[in-house]
Amino acid sequence: MQPAKQFFRANDRFDVVRQVGAGAMGVVYEAWDKNRNTRVALKTLTGLHPQALQLFKNEFRALADVSHPNLAALHELFFEDQWFFSMEYVEGGHFLDYVRPGGPSVPVAAVPEYVIGPDEPTFVGGDLAGGNLDLSLFSGKANRSIPPGHCDTKLLSASLEQLARAVLGLHSAGILHRDLKPLN
Prior knowledge:
This protein is α+β, with helices and mostly antiparallel strands. It is built from 3 helices and 5 strands.
């Protein structure tokens, strides 16, 4: 593993592997947790604005006790020259790359039972068998390995079921996810 270009201040417990994402409030890193002897994700807060810090702490406190098979588990909240929390690391990628077989994150060989056949419905130009589903609602880079708009409907259905279960788990805990997007 190559060392990450670090903005996270190293400490004795975590070895940062790489940056995996960034948003308006912080940066997420893949790291090795020496105490747990496992990979974790570290979500850091990039600024110290009081409102951002309050939101960050509230996010951790609200989610720390939520346990669901379709949600990453949160571990610990830290302050060591900066605020961050550790959580279960989940290998992932862009949702659209995943449901479009042959994309960079899911080679066709990895999902042969889901390859679209000639009589399978596909999303083309926003239509599913005459419906009105518009994939442009999902922002993000297009997968160039198959025609734009096509996707594996079986894989999409299974993935959306898992997503719905995760959101239902949050709603059951009284939490509203306000950042659903393909990369998340």
